[in-house]
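Hi F.,

I've been meaning to write this up properly since the lab meeting, where we talked about keeping a consistent format for the predictions we share between groups. The idea is simple: the sequence comes first, exactly as it goes in, then the structure tokens exactly as they come out, then a line or two of notes. No screenshots and no reformatting. I'm using this chain as the first example so we have something concrete to point to.
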Amino acid sequence: MAGFSLRKGTADVEEFTISSIACAPGDLLEIDVGATAATAADASTLCYVRKGVCTEVTTTSDTTVKVQIVDSSQEWEVETANSSSSSDNQDGMVLTDLNTVNNTGTNSVAKEAVVVQIKPVGVAADKKIRVKFTSTNSGLTHDAA
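Output, unedited:
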């Protein structure tokens, strides 16, 4: 499965409202502060916004999608843009798109660093890592200022 897959912990399942989004299991969605509908997560997704991982396929005509709610206690497996490396462990990382993390080999401290790498999964060429999300869904962190 492409995208995010829960490997440790449990997740509440909720329905997010969507509009004109085609989703696949493992895709990461975000709900910006003040928004009523979810959008596809991407490189500009902020660590403190509410996030959920799709559990079902939707088409652009669907108006809701079931998601696993993300929190910082869970561990997720995800695909990466580059080969994985244990030298990236504990690095903050920005998303490439809704199902890939941009592991550039440098630690990102930006508000858009939504995950921290825990460890690589498989061999480097598999381009998979285990991550934790950097913030809970409260919308109230020191990064939100």
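Notes:
Residues 136-145 have pLDDT under 50 and may be disordered.
The chain is about 0% helix and 40% strand.

If this format works for you, I'll send the rest the same way.

G.
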